[in-house]
Fold:
Amino acid sequence: MQNYEAIDATFDKIVSGVLEHGSRKFFILVNGSDGVKYQVKLNEVKQRHNVNEFISHYIGSCSDIPLVSGAFLELDILELKKIQEAIDSMPKNFYKQVDFSLNKENLFFGVEWKQHINKIDDERELISRVGETSNKTSLFSLYTFDQFTKNYDRHLGNHLVVKEGRSKKYYLIDFDRIFASTNWFNLPTDYKCFVPFVAHPSVQPYHSFLMYIVSDATLKFVHSYAGKLQSIKTESIKDMCDIISLLYNITSIEILNIFRWFEYRRQEIVMECQVNEKYFPRIKKGLYSVSR
Structure:
C-alpha cells in the first residue's frame, strides 16, 4: 500500500473545460517539491471531491487497481490565495463553489498529472488502445471497483492510456463521485446496493457497451478483482478512516458511516460479483452456479 507522505507544492494553473453533458468544471495543477506535477480537485460542498479521490485511491492501492500515483500536497496560505484569485477570475458560467474549510492542515490530495496521453475518442478506440498496454487485463478491474465504491461517473474520459518508456499502461481515473454522489451522512441507507452503473441517461449507452465487452474468456478477470477487494483488511479500512479524521473536518458519524460502508462491502463483493454475472449479455455460463 502507498505511503501518503505530505509534499510541499506550489500553484501552477487552472485547467477548465466543458463536459459532454454541458456542465463546466475545472481542476488545479500544482508542482510538487518531489518534481511531480499533480492534479487537485478542490472540495465542493455537496460531493466533497477531494476526500472521495483520496478514499478511492487508498482502497484501490490496497487491491491492485490500476491507478496513477497520489500524494497529500501542502499548500501554504500564499498558494491558497493565488488559487482563490485564479478561481475568482474565471468566467461566471463555471462552477466555482470552493470551500477550503474542510481541510484542517492545508493538505489536499492530488494525483500525478500524466503526460504523453493517448486520447480516447470512442468505444472502438478504447478497446484498441487498452489492447496495446502492458496491463490490458486490468481494464476488468473497473467492474468490481466501480460497484464496490458505487462510482456512477464512468465515461470515456475516465480511462487513461499513457506511454511510459517503451511501453504503454492503462489507468482508471476520476473518482470524485463515489457513493453515488451521496453525502457521507446518508451512507448507511445505501451501502448494501451493488447494482452496477446506475447513471445519468446520457452515459447509459456507454455503460451498456462496457457490460457487453466482458466475455466468457475475460469474466475470470472481473472475479479476480472482486477477490482482491475482499482481501482488504479491516485494519486498513480503519487506518484510512484515521487519516480522513486527522486531515479533514468530518464528523465522527460520517467517519463511522464510511468505515461501515467498506467493511460491509468488502465482505460481500465476491458474492455480489457472482450475482451480477447476469448483467453481462455475452456470458452464456458464468464461472459460478448462481440462480438467474
The chain is about 35% helix and 15% strand. The two ends are 37 Å apart (CA to CA). The first strand starts at residue 6 and ends at 18. The chain has one domain: 6-279.
